[in-house]
Amino acid sequence: MINETELLSRVPTRVLIDGAWTDTAADFGVWNPATGDELLRIADATAEDGLRALDAAVAAQESWAAEAPRRRAEILHHAWELLIAREDEFALLMTLEMGKPLTESRGEVRYGGEFLRWFAEEAPRIAGRYQRNPAGTGTIVVSRRPVGPCYFITPWNFPLAMATRKLAPALAAGCTVVVKPAELTPLTTLHFAALLQEAGVPAGVVNVVTTTASAAVSAPIIADPRLRKLSFTGSTPVGRRLLRQAADTVLKCSMELGGNAPFLVFEDADLDLAVEGALAAKFRNSGEACTAANRFLVHESVADEFAGRLAQRVQAMRVGRGTDEGVAIGPLIEQKAIEKVHGLVTDAVHRGAKKLCGGTPVAAPGTFYSPTVLSDVPDGAAILTEEIFGPVLAIASFTDESEAVRRANDTEYGLAAYVYTNDLARGQRMIDRIESGMMGLNVAAISDAAAPFGGIKQSGLGREGGGEGINEYLETKYTLIPSASPRP
Ligand code: NAD
Q: In angstroms, rounded to a whole number, what is the distance separating the alpha carbons of residues 257 and 283?
């Protein structure tokens, strides 16, 4: 059993610049959302600190790019081994600062760790192309090289995995980085950066700045022409803002943004499977996931039964501190989140939705919301168009397949979708017709380091993971070599 105080005493509290844990002028508190207690006070970086971190990443770029791919792979593999050996420690740290139940935090350590393992395996396999040109007059050589120094901005909901999903491919490709974790959950990234040092990542290759002034610290880094890549995971409004800033230097961008995943249940679905899938797709991470099912669209013939069965299961879910045994729903990240979720529930009920269970904030300390099931949610309710990011399952019904598809696609988002049907032909039609970057067909857990994670429409640009993931960190260079040497 890991001792919380002892663990917190080992978490770095300064920013990491050029391999040194460095003081800043001010600091800020990181809080446990389950208790309202302050966990640690950490460095609050300024714009100058951020630029110093970029200086370090720029200075380390050439030597890291020149490092043997095999060596980069070994370092990543070692980092994976260290992380897995410390699963309990990282899980506890995440639960303390973010709130999710320990079992889910452990799952995130394994999932986040997979990116280290996967990209360790990709590092030595970066390949180019060598081919004769069609005219027969020369050879086309296509080579791949690291993009260069990167800036990563990560969210609070998956404090470890959102960092490893970016760091692992960047390091494998030979890029150096500055990471700015979310101010609500920076401890996991700081602790992980120390692990990377231990695994052999050289000074300057990974730099971490923690700050409460995200916009002020990020803007000069993004505006700096030495930066070559921005990768952001967070909300669509912030993503849009960053894309505008990135336009000035035509900066390469990867954007993992918000979602509004539909969860379709057809009349021919295996309802037992759909209920289990719904619970997982909605309540994992207390609903605070970009891939969380946001709208349950259920055929009218099975909608009541589906809702009733779910309400029974959801009522039995235990709400509490993520460190307590048997807890299924931890706290939401902060009070603002409670207000937003409760506002969406109240609006839906006001418009005629039926509240089958939950629907109330749970008394302090801590920021808890009771797991909720709403049925008969009418069109026009904000809960069907906005990202809920909380433990609220909203069900609406449809009458036929074309209506289901129309409604599923009626959103600016296109991250994940879930489809439950036992009709293979219908399943195949859904793969073609549902506008999303990812889809689970009769399954709710779809994330995998070996698969391309990402969205279409306003859910993002680019992919993380899979064979695709490393491309985000590589430039393509074409060289033509004439067949015969030209005369001098
Ligand atoms: P957020 O957009 O508020 O913040 C994300 C990060 O951006 C944080 O580090 C924050 O400090 C920083 N930030 C905020 N404003 C900024 C600015 N003006 N300039 C620079 N940085 C700024 O999002 P959040 O609340 O932390 O996370 C939840 C959102 O993230 C949800 O919309 C969720 O869907 C999305 N998300 C997407 C994915 C994905 O892979 N598509 C994964 C996880 C979360």
A: 20
Helix H or strand E encompassing 420:
strand 416-420
Q: Residue 59 in contact with residue 21, Cβ under 8 Å?
A: no
- Do residues 384 and 367 share a domain? yes
Cβ-contact 160, 190 below 8 angstroms: no
The preferred substitution site among 184, 235, 286 for testing ligand 1, maximizing ligand atoms within 8 Å of CB, is 235
SS3 412: coil
For helices 187-199 and 161-173, give the axis angle rounded to 10 degrees: 30
Binned at pLDDT 50, 70 and 90, residue 372 comes out as: very high
In a domain, 76, yes or no: yes
3-state secondary structure 147-188: CCCEEEECCCCCCCHHHHHHHHHHHHHCCCEEEECCCCCCHH
Length of the chain: 488
> How many C-beta atoms surround the C-beta of residue 220 within 10 A?
14
CA–CA separation, 185 and 234 (whole Å): 13
Residues forming the active site: 256, 290
Q: What is the pLDDT of residue 363?
A: 85
Whole domain around residue 366: which residue ranges? 261-410+416-441
Question: How large is the average pLDDT for residues 352-358?
Answer: 98
155 and 290 share one domain: no
Helix (H, G, I), strand (E, B) or coil at 480: strand
Residue 446 forms part of a structural domain: no
Query: CB of 448 closer than 6 A to ligand 1?
Result: no
Tell me, using a 6 A CB cutoff, whether residue 390 lines ligand 1. no
Q: Residue 183 pLDDT more than 60? A: yes
Task: State the total domains in the chain.
Answer: 2
User: Is the distance from the beta carbon of residue 235 to the nearest atom of ligand 1 less than 6 Å?
Assistant: yes
> What single-letter DSSP state applies at residue 179?
E
